[in-house]
Each structure stands twice: as C-alpha cells, then as structure tokens.
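tmp note - Mitochondrial pyruvate carrier
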Amino acid sequence: MATSKLQALWNHPAGPKTIHFWAPTFKWGISIANIADFQKPPETLSYPQQIVITGTGLIWSRYSTAITPKNWNLFSVSLGMAATGIYQLTRKIKHDYASEADPIVAKE
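out:
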C-alpha cells in the first residue's frame, strides 16, 4: 500500500520529477528566512529585496492557479511570501518615514 502511494507521488504530474515540486520547496526557504528577519532592526532591511519578495509572491499566487495541474503548494508559499514581504516593507517604511517626524512642540 505504501509503495503504491509513493509510486503515485513519484509519477504524479506535479511530483518530485518536475519543477512544479521543487520551485515551492525553495520558495519555502526564502519565506522562512524572511520570517527570521522579523527580529532584525528595520534599518537593516532592503527595499529592493522586499519589493521583489512581495512582487514574486503576488505574481505567482495568481499564476499558480492558472497552470495545469494547479499547484496549491506554490499558491500557499506565494501568499506567504507576499504577506511577509508586505509586513517587512511596512516596517521599513514606518521606520524610515514615520519615525523621522518630530512632534510639534508649542512655543509659548
């Protein structure tokens, strides 16, 4: 029984012999690394890197449902990439622009 399930997975159109299997696997690594960067101070984050992570996540979450067979693993990791990228960009923008504004002090 287990052998037939392994053989079915191996021969599946989105199985380990195809890029449909490996692309999401590597993207999970990028997503986990981006989650680990939540602990970094915002000044060390890179706009270009986070924009690319966000863009890649948004684009591939759309196209992962358009390809045949539908790749739900790619869809879920792409949504995760977009979410972590948006969160990191928000942190960076708040740090760079919101924290620079000095409070207005009333002069008497």
